[in-house]
Automatic annotation (TrEMBL):
Annotated protein name in UniProt: Pimeloyl-CoA dehydrogenase small subunit
Domain annotation Acyl-CoA dehydrogenase/oxidase C-terminal: ranges: 227-363
Keywords per UniProt: FAD, Flavoprotein, Oxidoreductase
Cofactor: FAD
GO molecular function, one term: flavin adenine dinucleotide binding
Family: Belongs to the acyl-CoA dehydrogenase family.
InterPro entries hit by this protein: Acyl-CoA_Oxase/DH_mid-dom, Acyl-CoA_Oxase/DH_mid-dom_sf, AcylCo_DH-like_C, AcylCo_DH/oxidase_C, AcylCoA_DH/ox_N, AcylCoA_DH/ox_N_sf, AcylCoA_DH/oxidase_NM_dom_sf
Species whose genome carries this gene: Zhongshania antarctica
Residues covered by the Acyl-CoA dehydrogenase/oxidase N-terminal domain: 6-117
Superkingdom per UniProt: Bacteria
Residue ranges constituting the Acyl-CoA oxidase/dehydrogenase middle domain according to the UniProt record: 123-212
Amino acid sequence: MNFNLSEEQAMIKDSVARFVADDYNFDQRRQNVAMDKGFNPDNWQTFAALGWLSIPFPEALGGFGGNAVDTMVIMEEFGKGLVAEPYVATVLLFGGLLAHSGDGELQQQLIAKIIDGSLQGSFAYLERQSRFELSDVKTSAVAEGDNYRLNGEKTVVFNGSAADKIIISVRTSGEQYDENGISLFIVDADADGLNHTDYRLMDGQRAANISLNNVVVSKLQLIGELDQGFSLIQSVVTETTRAICAEAVGIMQKLTETTVEYSKTREQFGTAIGKFQALQHRMVDMFIAGEQTRSLLYRAVCSANANSDDSEKDLLALKVMVGRAGTLIGGEAIQLHGGMGMTDELDVGHYVKRLMMINTTFGDADYNQARFSKLLNR
């Protein structure tokens, strides 16, 4: 199978890699996440100017018309740089829901603003009791004439503190765990009755818990079809899961390379620790785990582009491997760096924390292992 990138994909990869090398070192990254929004708005405008925000959107909506490989290329390089700007929240989740919704006028209006960098968005789907189940929705929307009244709470809303608009999953019919009966509404972040509590996640990025107290929205703010939002959520979450797995692969490569380089300079008993065979074996294990994950990533991306019947199975296997390999590589990177690996001043721990967040996003390794087993036993 040919895994060579096209000329355009190679250009995208080089563009992101140059940005990370020139404008996104670890000290700059720490300054960015310390800003009020949790990222640097100037960087976001750079993303827009370079065309990265347009990559996943179809040409009919003013986008680049990229596929899963294009997104993979961007996210892998973002992983190597530990980029904190909300590409996942605004472009892949919020923008992805708009792009798949079929609402032509709303799509044209809002996606154009995402592409030019003037609109920040987020997707509120998690609730306190739902854990990893996307269909576990208690937040309600009750029809009142031409409007709906929203009540409930959403947790861990990525980019929720900086978003201008938020797409919220609500229950318009059915029981708490039913897939049918879930609808999606787009709400202004400053709408009456919408309150949010902002906080910083362990990887430095910002999120928010959002409460909805009689928030009134019109029927025109419905995204997709009434009661049929779950399939839309599934499609976008599937695409985004592949993307964050690509980010994880970039992080794994960075951690392995950083650890190998450190082992060549750190001396113990008068010699570089990289010459100790036992430590060499551990670094080889890191490399192998990263390459196995990369192979599964390529398989999952190729399955998606080919609309293969195995695409769901391949993605679940990839997500499981990201969790397992991420734990191994992260743990070894910290241990082989010794006491320095535990310090906040060294970038290693920050990469490991991001791997941990990726593992728990859209289901951790154990959860997806159970889904994989259930799929095989159908």
